[in-house]
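Retro notes (design track)

What went well: tokenization of the new backbones is finally stable.
What didn't: we kept losing track of which sequence belonged to which structure.
Fix going forward: every design gets posted as structure first, then sequence, in one message. First example under the new rule, 307 residues:
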């Protein structure tokens, strides 16, 4: 007499087989097979996310997310950057879907793995894969902004900060410029939604990155920071977050002065032009500005410790 297999058991078996297939294809260097396996795992995760959020469901989704990350690591060892890029994008898609379904722990898990992968890819000099993972973080951050999920926005910003710092340190300019740009885009998206904390986080993190880039005499990344701050300042100046506009103007001036000291004429000129382009009309008077800057600097220290 045979035993009936429930649809749930069949699905679980299919998931296990897909995970095994993904590792097999990755270890054998089969790019097409690896990408197909990762896409299949994404499909399983997206099917599970809308279901009842019990312990078993959560464990199943996390197992799929972790497996996608591990397959990406094998792909990195095999130098299959396209498979790495697909894995980072897939994990971002899963995190965004989970956030939209209010499955925050799943969203955080997916984001954490994307951030970890981005750092690992950058550390291995896999520029294309690292840039793709940074883009996934940026896409997630902008999506979280539309959902007004501040914890997730902060995490995306923190991971992009780490990737940018690593890239500046190792002179991985393409990755650094991309990560800085995506961080700025998250700030702009937050400003559009009038999420003051997340917008301020982006601005103070960008200042820290600008300072780091100047210290390393990295003019390309310094200019990327200046451009990101200018774009953020342009967006902020259209709203009511005047204290953040003060912070951005302060950041640009500090970067300009540091660049001037280092003889980075291009960055110095770019910062001066950015300052002139931002609409600072209607800002607080000088005394109030100094008080606001003091408060922002205290918040800056808090944000950097948190990240």
């Amino acid at each position: 007499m045979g035993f009936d297999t429930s649809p749930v058991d069949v699905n679980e078996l299919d998931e296990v087989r897909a995970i095994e297939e993904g590792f097999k294809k990755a270890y054998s260097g089969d790019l097409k097979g690896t990408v197909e396996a990762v896409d299949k795992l994404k499909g399983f995760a997206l099917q599970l996310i809308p279901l009842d959020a019990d312990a078993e469901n959560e464990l199943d989704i996390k197992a799929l997310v972790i497996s996608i990350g591990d397959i990406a690591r094998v792909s990195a060892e095999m130098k299959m950057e396209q498979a790495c890029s697909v894995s980072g994008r897939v994990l971002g898609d899963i995190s965004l879907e989970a956030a939209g379904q209010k499955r925050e722990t799943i969203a955080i898990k997916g984001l954490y793995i994307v951030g970890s992968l981005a750092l690992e890819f950058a550390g291995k000099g896999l520029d294309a894969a690292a840039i793709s993972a940074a883009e996934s973080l940026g896409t997630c951050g902008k999506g979280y902004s539309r959902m007004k999920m501040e914890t997730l926005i902060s995490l995306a910003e923190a991971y992009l900060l780490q990737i940018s710092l690593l890239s500046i340190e190792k002179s991985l300019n393409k990755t650094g410029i991309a990560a800085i740009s995506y961080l700025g885009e998250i700030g702009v998206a937050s400003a559009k939604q009038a999420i003051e904390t997340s917008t301020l986080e982006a601005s103070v993190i960008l200042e820290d990155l600008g300072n780091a880039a100047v210290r390393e005499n990295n003019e390309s990344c310094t200019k990327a920071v200046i451009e990101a701050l200018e774009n953020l300042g342009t967006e902020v100046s259209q709203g009511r977050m005047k204290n953040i506009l003060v912070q951005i103007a302060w950041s640009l001036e500090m970067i300009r002065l540091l660049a001037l000291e280092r003889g980075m004429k291009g960055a110095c000129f770019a910062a001066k032009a950015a300052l002139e382009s931002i609409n600072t009309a209607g800002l607080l008077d000088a005394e109030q500005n100094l008080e606001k800057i003091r408060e922002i600097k205290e918040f800056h220290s808090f944000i950097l410790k948190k990240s």
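Added context from the reviewer: Confidence is low (pLDDT under 50) at residues 1-7.
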